[in-house]
Amino acid sequence: QVHFVESGGGLVQPGGSLRLSCGASGSLLSIGVMGWYRQAPGKQRELVTTINIAGTSNYADSVKGRFTISRDNAKNTVYLLMNSLKPEDTAVYYCNSLPAARWGQGTQVTVSS
To answer: What is the distance between the alpha carbons of residues 44 and 57, in angstroms, rounded to a whole number?
Structure first.
């Protein structure tokens, strides 16, 4: 079973940017749809954005226009570029397939001044 390792999180001020990376242990070509999820303290994990193997993406309304998902199948890596970050974007971010496979450790994103 493929597993995923997320990186790139950190502390950023409101309005700032971060780029998250997600490395897969196997070929992304075998995975049709990848997604980024997030879980804020005290809340359920939510799906933020998805991208299919052709590169077509979808976004939750809360991040539309600010976040961009991309995938590099040759590098088995999925990225999430986050711009205009808000305090409400603070969460642990995870990548996974759809449907979800084994969860990784995630990467913490904190947006605070």
So the answer is: 22
Strand partners of residue 78: 22, 71
Using an 8 Å Cβ cutoff, are 110 and 90 in contact? Answer: yes
Estimate to the nearest angstrom the gap between the alpha carbon of 97 and the chain centroid.
11
Cα–Cα distance between 105 and 15 in angstroms, integer?
26
In the chain (113 residues long), the average pLDDT of successive 10-residue segments reads 94 98 92 96 97 96 98 96 98 95 96 97
CA 111 to chain centre: 16
- What distance in Å separates the CA atoms of residue 34 and residue 92, rounded to the nearest whole number? 17
